[in-house]
Amino acid sequence: MANIVKAKLRRLQAEKPAPKVKIRKGDQVLVVSGANRGDTGRVIDVDPRASTARVEGIRIVKKHEKPDRARGKTGGIVRVEAPIQLSNLKVIDPSTGRATRVGRRILEDGTIVRYAKGSGTVLDKTK
After folding, report:
1. 13, 45 contact by CB (below 8 A)
2. What is the pLDDT of residues 30-52, one digit of tens each?
3. Residue-level pLDDT at 71
4. By the 8 A CB rule, do 54 and 85 touch?
5. Under CATH, which number does the domain 18-92 receive?
């Protein structure tokens, strides 16, 4: 009986939409707190459900990998970026070079873009 309930909970969790996050892949960010406080880097990927992101060159850990002939991987100890909580990151404003908060704005043509609240600069690339 417990397995049926757990399966249903997992199914319901999968149906929920991912929460909106204000940090995206490719953004330059500043680490606000933690062991790497003050460091900057580019976002490699974002996981909205876990509310985490991986940042290039920050929070590097050693991971033991097994060799995999099918994928052509040699085994050994590799260095990879570990995820960081989104609450510990701030986007760097491209116009001022300082950390800023991010907001959402609807343009005249109806597209929703992110903008830096400090300077008002649009962060998303318009097509």
Report:
1. no
2. 999 989 999 999 999 999 988 99
3. 85
4. no
5. 2.30.30.30
